[in-house]
């Protein structure tokens, strides 16, 4: 049997046990489970506690790092010390989502013109360890154990790659379902990678073994998929966010457990589609929509525990975005589509009520990134007019500002806290603090 590296798209799909039917513009999918493939080599995902293997840290998107990941320096009120900076190409920084594993920062750089690149950079000093140039548009990556998973758009369609973390060499490649141009994010839990995609107006979710990428199961549901899936391994549940809805599946065999649809309100300007990524924690799935809805589901049953809705009146909408979760508190940013500053809410996960709020105006006019929580501190960036952008550190108990640190350029992503370092992706590259 020829290597999967050299197989055509159709041959690779056939080898993976998928149904591929030729047609105009793509192929047809059916729900499928094949016991021959199982967990591929039953390869576990080796993740150290201080790693940041996913863009939102874990498969559940909690953005909650353990205390041992906190910066090395003592809090003095004067901000964090800069450890190093890494300059990169200015093309497409808004599409860059770095991850950290085994002392290395991995990032896929997408460019509108010219080759893209997958890079590995030393976390401590910023030296580049390796780089792989690509002709296709690079998407987000996940780094677990000795490999880096990369779902990206290629000439022949959307593909899932696994590369060696040590040198970037290709370990295996699998075709993924999806419309041309789709770039998504794999999510790893246990010995599987879960990947969402779209085929027309149908959302597709697949589970792949980490050893060789072969499909254990694949399922479909109504509506194009929006954002990466979220996985709670202990509850054997994977949640997929779709256009106007949410669906939960069993991680073992892909059986659908429940599905819910977001109904549109009478306000014609309201948009019931999901906003941001789903977040799973303590038996709940937290989701938000463009019409200002924030909802908590019991993800075992699909029942709604609570919901709250922002006032949709007025000329401009504002929305919630689930950001981080720690110790029974959901940290979510209320975003405005006008000149009003963003607001960070610390929401009680049991009741949905605010414990405290902090407006960007309280720290300086501007917009806030998603938060990251570590060791009783909330890390987030403040973006303002001009060049005075900052990294803020707040007390998770009451929202008071602990310190603030100047950034070199416009921040594009929420802070990453891993291995005693805080990494902020900016328009110039990375700012790394200790």
UniProtKB/TrEMBL annotation:
InterPro entries linked to this entry: PQQ_b-propeller_rpt, PQQ_rpt_dom, Quinoprotein_ADH-like_sf, WD40/YVTN_repeat-like_dom_sf
Residues annotated as domain Pyrrolo-quinoline quinone repeat: 205-319, 343-429
SMART domains: PQQ
Positions of the UniProt region annotated as Disordered: 38-78
Recorded superkingdom: Archaea
SUPFAM superfamilies: Quinoprotein alcohol dehydrogenase-like (SSF50998)
Protein known as: Outer membrane protein assembly factor BamB, contains PQQ-like beta-propeller repeat
